[in-house]
Design brief:
The complex is a heterodimer.
Chain A: E1 13-17, H1 23-26, H2 37-54, E2 58-62, E3 78-81, E4 84-87, H3 98-108, E5 112-115, E6 128-130, E7 134-139, H4 145-154, E8 159-164, E9 175-179, E10 182-186, H5 189-201, E11 207-211, E12 220-224, E13 228-233, H6 240-246, E14 252-256, E15 274-276
Parallel strand pairs in A: 1-2, 4-5, 7-8, 10-11, 13-14
Antiparallel strand pairs in A: 1-15, 3-4, 6-7, 9-10, 12-13
Chain B: H1 2-20, H2 27-31, H3 36-55, H4 60-80, H5 85-96, H6 99-122, H7 131-144, H8 146-159, H9 163-179, H10 187-197, H11 200-236, E1 247-253, E2 259-265, H12 270-281, E3 289-294, E4 300-302, H13 309-312, E5 319-324, H14 337-352, H15 360-375, H16 384-390, H17 399-410, H18 417-428, E6 437-442, E7 448-453, E8 457-462, E9 465-471, E10 475-481, E11 484-489, E12 499-504, H19 508-526, H20 552-560, H21 574-583, H22 589-599, H23 604-626, H24 636-656, H25 681-695, H26 699-703, H27 706-711, H28 715-735, H29 742-752, H30 760-764, H31 769-776, H32 780-794, H33 797-818, H34 820-824, H35 828-862, H36 868-878, H37 882-905, H38 907-927, H39 931-949, H40 956-964, H41 968-978, H42 981-986, H43 991-1000, H44 1004-1018, E13 1020-1028, H45 1047-1065, H46 1067-1074, H47 1082-1098, H48 1100-1120, H49 1126-1130, H50 1145-1159, H51 1164-1186, H52 1190-1211, H53 1215-1220, H54 1230-1255, E14 1263-1270, H55 1273-1277, E15 1284-1294, E16 1298-1309, E17 1312-1323, H56 1329-1345, E18 1350-1360
Parallel strand pairs in B: 1-5, 13-17, 13-18
Antiparallel strand pairs in B: 1-2, 3-4, 3-5, 6-7, 7-8, 8-9, 10-11, 11-12, 14-18, 15-16, 16-17
Helix pairs in contact in B: 1-3, 1-11, 3-4, 3-6, 3-7, 3-9, 3-10, 4-5, 4-6, 4-7, 4-10, 4-23, 5-6, 6-7, 6-8, 6-9, 7-8, 7-45, 7-47, 8-47, 9-10, 9-11, 9-46, 10-11, 14-18, 14-21, 15-17, 15-18, 16-17, 23-31, 23-32, 23-45, 24-32, 24-38, 24-40, 24-41, 25-33, 25-35, 25-37, 25-38, ...
The chains are: A alpha/beta, B alpha+beta.
Chain lengths: 282, 1368
């Protein structure tokens, strides 16, 4: 019985998109850095492989679009919760068209598509943290209040709270869900501040898992039948200290996934996929 | 009721006849517009109406309107009366007419006669300008001379068989009309009359409608009810003969959309109807539910179970809705399926109306569960879609959704209805807006937001986004001032100061509504037991509103005891539900809110409200001001006003920075002003007190002469007085009574308007008080209303003077205790000086900072008005809070004065108080401080002070409470008296006390205590605590020698108000009074009580005695009735008079007889009570001998505790919570105080509560018990009649269910000043529990306040009305 807010982390499908060669030079980034395209592509292949083979998700792979250097980061293009998909209006103008392919893909999956047509609204999926009980939307450079409002309208079942993101690209640049009621949070001051706000804004109680590195706080949690708690997190090579923290999660199936290259263009683990639970559809 | 039927039928017949026959002739008066019937009725009723109008102040607006009509009616009556020529004409008509008319005539004649007589009696007191006034006077006369009035009534009865009944009917009708437009036929006539006068067309329409709708039934019912009641009254007391119970038809829209018609007594409390509904539903877990109604602004309000329905529902139709009030966070914990079912119905409404938003999927899922619950398994053969389309699953549902619903429905096969409901709830409860009560508001920046009140706290939404959340544990205080709603936030880990977040609500009412909802939700979900109401407190400044029901914890506990087979109930079809939704009781919150906000803008509304309030106030104010603050309390409006005041006080900081409102305004104005200073609320409270005192003085000046005050030593004081006077004048100016110069008025305006703080700018800008008044907004308005009311009642200059004098006298009294000799000076100015001194002391020690802050804000406001002195004072006060204060004293005084006036004015005072509080808060912030602790201490201290100052004065928390409650008048008085000022005054007087204070300066509480002690040592005070349930607060006006002349007029005025109050408070009493005859006969009961109060004014001591005597009589009569639940109940409800010291010999003597009579009747309960009383008495004895020393207090306390223990059983309600209360969350700031005080009591109360809860059976019986406890010492202690009457004060405060009238009489005997405090507490509550507590608390408070005091007499008169509520 799929009820309201049931089965957090239970996904059946994933939408990913290939890395365009334009990513290395044209992709937006906060810090100047050189990206090894091939390395990035290998990383991404591994990433998709984990989703597909290791976790058994049905992965929809969208072709890369050279005109959209950031198209690999599909998370920003759509927010899917339950059987409703909100097609976002990315804050970066250059990424607006990324949503087209995503829209088509999600439509084919039979999701209820909600458009963000308001010209004044911007929302990056990376600013949307869904905890299973509610949404936190980071108000960042890419996401504004209006975008959050539209998200709230799209997912009426849930409380949508706004969290100012003063540092970092997205809200999920320093946090993510590491399990039901478990927020993985970076240890930076902005991250901790954001966590406090979230805790204050929420009617629910969350445990927190603090990791030394903000980026490492971005993980992918799933609760898959037969596999239980699954957590995709950073590799020890990238963030040894943070990786140790994750290793303390005894109940989780821990899957370190390398993300060294994509991080250079501000791509986190969650950025590269849109997870969908088609079974959750009522 | 059955017996009455005959009479009813007769009555009906009569009216009909009258209509048929006389219609033609009657036309002369009103007939032109109205139909014959209407004309007749109007004629008949007109007198009654007039009287009623005069009597019932509660119905402010209506009354106002009515008042005019009443005047007309009175005029008509006069005509009707044989004496007047027109009357002769009517008589002629009457001949033709049936007995009805004749009866009416007779009644009318009686009325006029009485009125005439009254003038004679009163003599030259004041010429009655308006007929209404005459009527009031007549009432007063009746009250004054109940016996005479009674005989008249009897005679009438004899003459005209039906006359008394008619009178009663008329009264009831009038009352009903006033209260409810829906009213019965009787009401219709009254309306007709009014309408005729005002607008004939409207009236006619209304009449027709009413008649068509319910007229016949209602009439019958009412008549029946009236008759039986009348019988009761007879039994109880001859005076009450005329009383009849009027029945009103209520229509409650149930959750399934059906209409539940319920006939209730007109004066029934919300609880009665609610229980009726629950009974009909077979619902045991009823604590989650409530009755809602739409106010005039179409806003949905919760019916307060502890208050009379009619007082809450102002509009004509008694159309209510049964709704879920508290959404259980976990419905699976509900014990019974029926409860879940009802919750499901509510949620379906919420969902269908869009109030509870959910996604498509959720809509479908929930809809499918609804289908399963109501239709069972999906039947593939049926055309589901057809029926489904008739159901409403969502605000806008599509075919797609319906298909989805059916699809899902198929998956629920095998699910029982109960299971389906459970699944429904399990999903619905997860919705983010589940149980969130949204209210439109604006943040400090004027941005539209929504305030969501829920089980966990307060949610702030902007559009659909949650932008902030304040969990209950994070909230230290909730307050509202005017249209602002404030929450004080507990400082975070890294934060040093509390912050206050302010929100702007569309209007005052909405602000109060939010506040109440918050209080209720917090109490229900967060506390183990409800907070103990502050009933016992002498004066309650703020709203006393508290959630009186069971908390969720209690409810769950009680639910575990439910042992019955699952009740069978039929699930109605969704169709029906959908229909209900359409027409629905359930209001789309958003829409409603929108409408409300749009309708009223903050700035505009206040003015409107003020005007309306003012009108109402006029009606009531008179009563309030003169004698019965209690009258105000009964009135919802007044209460709201009080609330406003209280709110203001709390909000002071915000108010200053008002608009800034949101957030943390620690130091918006001056650092101190910030809201955070709430802790300083105590100080603020003190300020309030000061203000009140000052305010009181001003009035006297006004009457006597403003100049003298000015001449008074302390310029500031004088100024304050003048200001007060001015404020009064300003009030009066409306009345055109203004005696004071406009300039003064302006000053007053500031004072009054300090409360306006928010409108500070306006204050600064403007000129006339009048301007301020409107600006001041609702809070201010109430105060003005009171004043106006007083004035109106007095109508004459004397009355006004008296009114003015009263406050002064009060202030004086307070002062006196502290410094007997100086204070004694009858002159208001001296008193003021003393007050100021005390104030200054207090300020210096404890309040210095606060005061300074307060002064500063005030100064800001005042600046234009205030003289150099003010400015000087402010600066000094501001910069150097402590030392400067002394210097500033004058300034402080002025500020105080300003505040006081404002308080007196109601709205302004409160504002001032708030301002003060804010300031103090700021100071506290500065100090830094364990603000919480400080607050608590302060609160407790303030409470003590309040109690000391005035029996009535409530602790600072009370001020907070004020927000919650309260009749404006009471609030005003309370504020003025009860607030810190009195204690301060006491403190100042004794230098020693000051020293002590200084020592304890750090701890304000300590200082307060010290001051108290000092005061105690120096001055012996007798405290007479009278608790009268039946008699509302016949607030006894103790006239100062100066005022003495005026008192009579005042008394009459007071009586009237009292009557009104009484009516409100006590249904029975009210009924009597209300009846047209009431003017003559009805008024008796009330008048008697009131008279008692009045008596005091005449002869301070004797007056009290008279009151007591009267009460006893009633009590005796009542006693005849059986006491069902005995015992303890009697104490609380009944009048408890505690006379501490015998010094006031007269009082003692009087009391003693009463006590004798009273004591005898009660059997079971009495014993216990007696014991308790004995204990009390014992302490008093000691006290008298030793004259108030610390030791005495202890014993007294013990006694109190004992009493409390006993009482608790009966009361069983609220006190428990105190101990349990979470320190963190302070609803109204009072909690802390309560905690301290209540602790001992809590256990017992809890026990009582438990009992009650378990019983759950409402008591329907009407029992009257009178218990009198006298201290043997009385005689000895009473040193005979003391020599010189120093001062007399009467303070009346009203809370939702409690009206407290405190008479403070100071006399100078051989150089010793005696203070005799008579406290009359009228508790109108459904539950008996509170009374005991109230009594105990009152005594306790009194003792705390006056350690030296001995309780000489406690008279408890308890009337328990247990209607035939077959509650389960």
């Amino acid at each position: 019985m799929a009820g309201v807010m049931a089965g957090f982390g239970n996904f059946t499908h994933a939408v990913v998109r290939a890395i365009p060669s334009s990513l290395a030079k044209e992709a937006l980034r906060m810090n100047v850095s050189d990206v090894d395209l091939e390395k990035a592509q290998r990383e991404h292949e591994v990433y998709v492989g984990v989703l597909k083979q290791k976790l058994g998700l049905e992965v929809i792979e969208l072709p890369a679009d050279e005109s959209l250097p950031d198209c690999v980061f599909v998370e920003d293009a759509a927010v899917v919760c339950g059987d409703t998909a909100l097609i976002t209006r990315p804050g970066a103008e250059s990424r607006r068209k990324e949503t087209e392919a995503m829209r088509r893909a999600l439509k084919e999956l039979g999701l209820n598509i909600v458009e963000m047509s308001d010209e004044n609204a911007t929302l990056d999926g990376g600013d949307v943290l869904f905890t299973g009980r509610e949404f936190f939307v980071g108000l960042s450079k890419r996401t504004n209040q209006r975008g959050a409002e539209i998200l709230a309208d799209a997912f009426k079942d849930y409380a949508v709270s706004t969290v100012p993101v003063t540092d970092g690209l997205h809200l999920k640049s320093f946090c993510s869900m590491g399990g039901p009621g478990l927020i993985v949070i970076g240890s930076s001051e902005p991250a901790q501040k954001a966590l406090k706000i979230m805790q204050q804004m929420s009617d629910h109680r969350y445990d927190k898992l603090t990791v030394p590195d903000d980026i490492a706080a971005n993980t992918i949690y799933m609760n898959l039948p037969g596999k239980g708690h699954v957590l995709l997190h950073c590799t020890p090579e990238e963030f040894p200290e943070s990786a140790k923290v994750f290793e303390k999660l005894k109940d989780h199936m821990l899957i370190p996934v390398s993300n060294m290259e994509k991080v250079k263009v501000d791509g986190a683990l969650t950025c590269c996929s849109v997870l969908i639970n088609m079974k959750a559809k009522v | 009721m059955t017996t009455e039927v005959g009479s009813e039928t007769e009555v009906k017949k009569e009216p009909e006849k009258a209509e048929e026959q006389p219609a033609a002739p009657e036309p002369e008066p009103p007939a032109t517009t109205q139909t014959d019937e209407a004309a007749e009725q109007s004629a008949n009723e007109s007198p009654a109406l007039a009287t009623d109008s005069a009597e019932a102040p509660a119905e402010a607006k209506e009354n106002q309107e009515e008042a005019q009509p009443a005047d007309n009616a009175t005029a008509q009556e006069g005509e009707d009366s044989p004496a007047s020529p027109p009357a002769s004409e009517k008589k002629g008509i009457s001949r033709f007419l049936p007995p009805w008319l004749k009866r009416q005539k007779s009644q009318s004649t009686v009325g006029p006669k009485e009125s005439q007589a009254t003038p004679k009696e009163e003599g030259g007191v004041v010429p009655v300008k308006e007929e209404v006034e005459k009527a009031e006077q007549a009432k007063a006369e009746q009250t004054s001379s109940p016996t005479a009035a009674e005989p008249q009534v009897e005679e009438e009865k004899v003459n005209g068989e039906a006359e008394p009944e008619q009178k009663e009917e008329v009264n009831s009708e009038e009352k009903e009309e006033e209260n409810h437009s829906t009213g019965s036929a009787e009401t219709q006539p009254a309306k007709e009359e009014k309408a005729v006068e005002e607008s004939q067309e409207k009236s006619a329409v209304e009449e027709e409608n009413k008649e068509t709708e319910e007229g016949g039934e209602k009439k019958k019912d009412e008549e029946e009810s009236l008759k039986p009641e009348g019988g009761h009254y007879f039994i109880k007391s001859p005076l009450k003969l005329t009383k009849k119970v009027k029945m009103v038809m209520c229509h409650v829209t149930m959750l399934d959309g059906s209409q539940f018609p319920c006939e209730v007594e007109k004066r029934a409390k919300g609880q009665y109807l609610f229980f009726k509904v629950c009974e009909a539903l077979n619902l045991l877990e009823k604590d989650y539910f409530g009755l809602s109604y739409k106010d005039n602004a179409d806003q949905t309000c919760w019916l307060d179970p502890t208050k009379e329905i009619k007082r809450q529902i102002r509009n004509a139709s008694w159309q209510l809705a049964f709704n879920v009030k508290f959404y259980p966070p976990d419905p699976s914990q509900l014990t019974e399926d029926i409860t879940r079912y009802l919750l499901c119905l509510q949620l379906r409404q919420d969902i269908a109306s869009g109030r509870l938003p959910c996604s498509f999927v959720t809509h479908s899922l929930l809809g499918s569960y609804s289908l399963q619950a109501e239709l069972g398994d999906h039947d593939p053969d049926e055309q589901r879609l057809d029926y489904i389309s008739d159901l409403q699953f969502a605000p806008s549902q599509t075919k797609e959704m319906e298909e989805k619903v059916v699809e899902l429905h198929k998956t629920h096969r095998g699910m029982t209805p109960a299971q389906a409901d459970t699944q429904f709830l399990e999903n619905a409860k997860k919705l983010s807006m589940y149980g969130v009560d949204l209210h439109h508001a604006k943040d400090s920046e004027g941005v539209d937001i929504m305030l969501g009140v829920c089980a966990n706290g307060l949610l702030i939404y902007k559009d659909r986004l949650r932008i902030n959340r304040f969990a209950w544990p994070k909230i230290l205080k909730i307050s509202y001032k005017r249209s602002n709603f404030y929450i004080k936030i507990r400082p975070g880990e890294t934060e040093l100061f509390e912050s206050t977040v302010g929100f702007k609500l569309p209007n005052h009412r909405s602000a109060k509504r939010v506040w109440k909802v918050c209080v209720e939700n917090h109490t229900f979900f967060r506390l183990m037991t409800p907070e103990a109401p502050t009933k016992a407190k002498f004066l309650t400044l703020g709203s006393k509103f508290r959630y009186s029901g069971r908390t969720q914890a209690q409810t769950r506990q009680a639910s575990t005891l439910i042992d019955r087979p699952a009740p069978y109930f039929e699930r109605t079809s969704s169709k029906r539900i959908s229909r209900s939704l359409d027409g629905a009781p359930v209001i789309n919150v958003i829409e409603a809110q929108d409408s409300a906000p749009t309708s009223v803008e903050n700035g505009r509304e206040p003015g409107l409200e003020l005007s309306s309030d003012s009108k109402s106030i006029f009606m009531f104010p008179l009563s309030f001001s003169s004698s019965s603050n209690s009258s105000l309390p009964p009135i919802l409006d007044t209460i709201s006003e009080l609330d406003v005041l209280s709110d203001i006080s709390e909000d002071d900081p915000l108010s200053w920075g008002q608009l800034d409102g949101d957030g943390d305004y620690p130091g918006i104005w001056v650092p101190d002003f910030t809201p955070q200073q709430h802790a300083d609320s105590l100080a603020a409270a003190e300020h309030y007190h000061h203000q009140p005192l000052e305010a009181s003085p001003p009035p006297s000046p006004l009457t006597c002469s403003s100049e003298p005050q000015e001449g008074s030593p302390v310029q500031a004081k004088d100024a304050a007085q003048s200001r007060l006077g001015f404020s009064l004048l300003g009030m009066l100016t409306g009345l055109r009574l203004g005696l004071l110069p406009f300039s003064l008025l302006d000053e007053d305006g500031y004072l009054c308007f300090p409360s306006l703080p928010q409108d500070c700018a306006a204050c600064l800008v403007p000129a006339g008080l009048q301007h301020y008044l409107p600006l001041s907004s609702p809070s201010v308005v109430p105060s003005f209303m009171f004043i106006l009311a007083l004035l109106l009642s007095a109508s004459q200059s004397l009355a006004l003077a008296f009114l003015l004098a009263m406050p002064l006298a009060l202030s004086i009294c307070y002062l006196e205790p502290k410094a007997p000799v100086p204070a004694h000076a009858p002159v208001a100015t001296p008193c003021l000086d003393t007050h100021t001194d005390t104030h200054t002391f207090l300020l210096q020690e404890e309040l210095c900072d606060q005061l300074a802050w307060a002064l500063l804000p005030q100064s800001h406001d005042i600046v234009p008005l205030g003289g150099a002195a003010w400015n000087q004072a402010f600066p000094s006060s501001i910069s150097p809070f402590l030392s400067p204060r002394q210097k500033n004293i004058p300034t402080t005084k002025t500020t105080q004065v300003e505040e006081e006036p404002s308080e007196g004015a109601a709205a302004t005072p409160t504002e001032g108080t708030e301002m003060k509080r804010d300031e103090p808060d700021s100071s506290q912030q500065d100090l830094d401080k364990t603000q919480e602790d400080v607050l608590k201490h302060q609160a407790s201290i303030s409470e003590l002070k309040r109690s000391f100052m005035e029996a009535t004065p409530e602790p600072r928390p009370s001020q907070w409470e004020k927000r919650l409650t309260a009749s404006p008048a009471t609030s005003l008085r309370l504020q003025a008296q009860g607030r810190s000022p009195p204690p301060r005054t006491q403190e100042p007087l004794p230098d020693l006390t000051v020293d002590t204070v200084a020592k304890s300066s750090d701890d304000k509480q300590k200082s307060d205590e010290a001051t108290w002690q000092a005061a105690e040592v120096e001055i012996e005070e007798t405290v007479v605590v009278e608790e009268i349930r039946v008699a509302p607060k016949g607030s006894v006006t103790i006239t100062t020698p100066e005022v003495v002349v005026t008192p009579v007029a005042v008394e009459t005025e007071v009586e009237k108000p009292k009557d009104e109050v009484i009516e409100e408070v006590k249904e029975e009493v009210k009924e009597e009074q209300k009846r047209p005859v009431s003017v003559s006969s009805d008024s008796h009961s009330e008048s008697e009580e009131e008279e008692a109060g009045e008596y005091h004014p005449q002869v301070t001591v004797s007056a009290s005695v008279d009151q007591i005597k009267e009460e006893p009589e009633e009590e005796e009569k009542e006693e005849a009735k059986d006491h069902e639940e005995p015992e303890q109940v009697a104490e609380p409800e009944p009048l408890s008079e505690v006379e501490e010291e015998a010094k006031p010999a007269p009082a003692v003597v009087e009391e003693t007889p009463v006590a004798e009579t009273e004591t005898a009747p009660v059997a079971e309960a009495p014993e216990e009570e007696e014991e308790s009383t004995e204990d009390i008495l014992v302490t008093p004895h000691e006290a008298p001998y030793g004259h108030a020393e610390a030791p005495e207090d202890q014993p007294s306390l013990v006694a109190l505790e004992e009493e409390e223990e006993e009482e608790p059983r009966v009361n069983g309600d609220a006190s428990h919570a105190e101990t349990e209360r979470l320190p963190q969350v302070i609803c109204c700031s009072e909690p802390p105080v309560v905690k301290t005080e209540m602790v001992t009591i809590s256990d017992t109360f809890a026990a009582q509560k438990m009992e009650i809860a378990t019983k759950e059976v409402p008591i329907v019986h009407t029992e009257t018990k009178t218990i009198t406890y006298e201290a043997a010492q009385l005689d000895g202690s009473g040193d005979g009649e003391p020599g010189v009457l120093m001062t007399a004060q009467t303070i009346t405060s009203e809370s939702l269910c409690t009206t407290t009238t405190t008479h403070i009489t100071k006399t100078l005997k051989g150089g010793l000043s005696e203070t005799r405090i008579e406290k009359r507490i009228v508790i109108t509550g459904d539950s008996d529990i509170d009374h005991d507590q109230a009594l105990a608390q009152a005594i306790k408070e009194a003792k705390e306040q006056h350690p030296d005091m001995s309780v000489t007499r406690v008279v408890v008169h308890k009337e328990t009305e247990l209607a035939e509520e077959g509650e389960d």
